[in-house]
Amino acid sequence: MPNTRLFFTIICITLIAGAELHSQDAENVEQVGRIYNQWINANDVIVVGDLAYVATGRSGLQIVNISDPENPEEVGYYDTPGHAEGVTVSGDYAYVADWESGLRVLDITDPENPEEVGYYYTPGFAYSVTVSGDYAYVADDYCGLRVVDITDPENPEEVGYYDMQGIARCVTVSGDYAYVADYIIGLRVVDITDPENPEEVGYYHTPGEAESVTVSGDYAYVADWESGLRVVNITDPENPEEVGYYDTPGYANGITVSGDYAYIADWGSGLRVVNITDPENPEEVGYYDTPDWALGVTVSDGYAYVADSYSGLRVVDITDPENPEEVGYYDMPGRAYAVSVSGGYTYVADFESGLRVVNINDPENPEEVGYCDTPGDANDVTVSGDYSYIADGSSGLRVVDITDPENPEEVGYYDTPGYARGVTVSGGYAYVADRSSGLRVVDITDPENPEEVGCCDTPGDAFGVTVSDDYAYIADLRRGLRVVKINDPENPEEVGYYYTPGWACSVTVSGGYAYVAEEESGLYVVDITDPENPEEVGYYDTPGLAYGVTVSGDYAYVAGNCSGLHVVDITDPENPEEVGYYDTPGHAHGIAISEDGLIYVADFTNVGIYRFTDPAKVDDSFILHPSAFILHPACPNPFNSSATIRYGLSTPGSVSLEVYSPLGQKITTLFAGFRQAGSYSTNLTANNFPSGLYFVRLNAADQVFTQKVMLVR
Predict the structure, then answer these.
(1) Fewer CB within 10 Å of terminal CB in the chain, N or C?
(2) H or E segment and range at residue 76
(3) Topology adopted by domain 45-205
(4) What is the spatial distance between Cα 279 and Cα 685, in angstroms, rounded to a whole number?
């Protein structure tokens, strides 16, 4: 690896010792119940007995019963406050490397009800963890190896560390040594005979980017990203030496060794099985191409368990290593995109899996009672009378009879010409936001035979729609708020508009105002007393991507994608002010309020049920003035075309936010200038970037944070 990369790392990845990196997950909002427990992605997995423990990013720790490998079944979960990246189990406890939230210690004596009993906020980003004796060893990304005393699991305490000036991605312990996969340098060997004073004694500079490492016998096996498997002789830990390698077809990300074989989670090409009987000449003998991105792998009793990013846990029979075969999996059934509440039921647009009907008479114990699989992608849902109307992507508008909520049945549909993204009902008409084809007006007086009677082609992509009086208000992705007169539904006509600076995703109307959830900049308040001349009067910059919005009473409730639920006081529409929030475990997308005031958030991984309490009790000092200087994880990551970068400043000053290549070349500047103390977000758009790895570098107040982002096209 070029020396310029090491130089760049030393210069740019400097952290202030002892930086306080705490997170606050909620303010004035509490979770009452939860519908579903789907996974964002599977990052790491370990098997103990009949249970697999899976680290699933924002979805936390998931526990899966694998006593029948062909039919794995989830039995318990715990929503960690950060992004669960790595997990290990020792005795009655699971130890989770929870990215920005450090090390979390969970009591798993009752696997159906894991309970956090202790935690330690590491100074960096906890990426991997292993336990040996009385200590947990954490690979803490930019802050190296952290040694945490866990003799009292309820009060874990750091007793030593080794700052390797690199990027610690994985750690394993064998004998008196910790072996660290350092993304920048390769394999680091650290003497831990005195855990309070760990000391590096040797290293081997791998040619790629070391993602993970395991040790078997006299050899360390390193998953080295684009350089595949590297086999390093460690009989002399002070002088580790590569003796063999196998260049996998994808990107080697996770690795485990069992018997004569190394099993590699190869990002892009699935599970690779490599014969290592001759470590100097490792040879691939079999593979199984998993449906998504293989990130982690473990082996137990003839099966390989692969953490396969967005496709969950895959169970692969490896009794014949030359012919591995998938025999079972546990995957999330869909993604909760939108939610509507009517009577004692919640109706969920669950994207891949259609309409789900949930009884919420007991909000603390909601129960799914029925479903209807739609043919497209269920993006939005609204209820009117005995029918549920679904914006079903490429399959247009679907009409579902819900007179018997336990047996919902599709009775009619209209195939819109575009991609149905949003829907609302008013009078005898359904109004569909149909992406590239604008607003479609569908007569639903006969629900079994819906018929389009009018349309208005908006200039951008119609994403969301609401109706008030004689007007339809459309969130038009790249063209802001569009106002369409619909007093004659057969001839809808645009009469006014307001250009928001970014992408308008959702809109609701209350009183004389339209409230627009605008992806990049948050909540916009637009005066529509004169619908032909809408005018912005106020806005609130949410810290994440604003996707959904609804209004009830004096409050606007915003679904902030990467940042969860935000409650904004709009008693003075010109000065909206956040008064509460809840950092939901998934990606908050859709939102609804029930008659009893409970808040339902479609969060991709679940539908969360929340209660907002008296705002007079709120101390919003944390919201306005973070006590820590912090660069939050990019969202999403990996990303396809754009990602949101959020950061917090505890003091005012000059700020630069830049993107670099792995070789230290500056690619672009996202922001450079003066900022007051507070929370900020910006969009990283990679229209002209090639796929690959990049580093986002934040520099302010003589402090520097850097994080990795992956662009995948």
Answers:
(1) C
(2) strand 73-78
(3) Methylamine Dehydrogenase; Chain H (2.130.10)
(4) 44
